[in-house]
Fold this sequence. Notes:
By secondary structure, the chain is of the alpha/beta class. It is 37% helix and 22% strand.
Amino acid sequence: xxxxxxxxxxxxxxxxxxxxxxxxxxxxxxVVAEDTRVTGRLLAAQGxxxxxxxxxxxxxxxxxxxxxxxxxxxxxxxxxxxGTPAVSDPGAKLVAAAWEAGHTVSPVPGPSAVxxxxxxxxxxxxxxxxxxxxxxxxxxxxxxxxxxxxxSRPSVAFESPHRIRRTLGLIAEVLPDRPVLLARELTxxxxxxxxxxxxxxxxxxxxxxxxxFTLVIAGx
Length: 220
């Protein structure tokens, strides 16, 4: 049977691809990518040209059989646009299917926006809670924040640039004295980290609500 590598890719800076990650990309017969254009640029930067197969969340069920068929022919690497697959990005169904089909599954660790933001926050705690992408509706976010209020562990979430200002406003309303770390464009040219009460961070952010945002909320 073949091997499916779960390969973490850079979250911004292409130089963060590990040497092992490059060797795996060079060796596999197939690269299964969330966006073949994004992965194509990563491969080009490494001087690699590989067979690519698109594997996106909206059509995960339809493309699963094609990926499994590719695994029957040789080893494959599953990658996402940035970070580690199958966490907040597509891949969990494929990994489960690969196990069930008798293939070997091997993780190849790489950069993570979650751990990068936690490490820079200075919010001590016995571990942390990862909530993934925040809900779209304000009422759902408010209920989530209320559930996090008594926790001693910091919480980490992803938020879109279109909703980050609204979300910071809700945190300032529900948890007014709780410090947060807002990490924008981690490892990229325009990387920016803002820390303090949510209201102050919102004011400091101003109109710069562009890019990828990782949010850390301190524990109680």
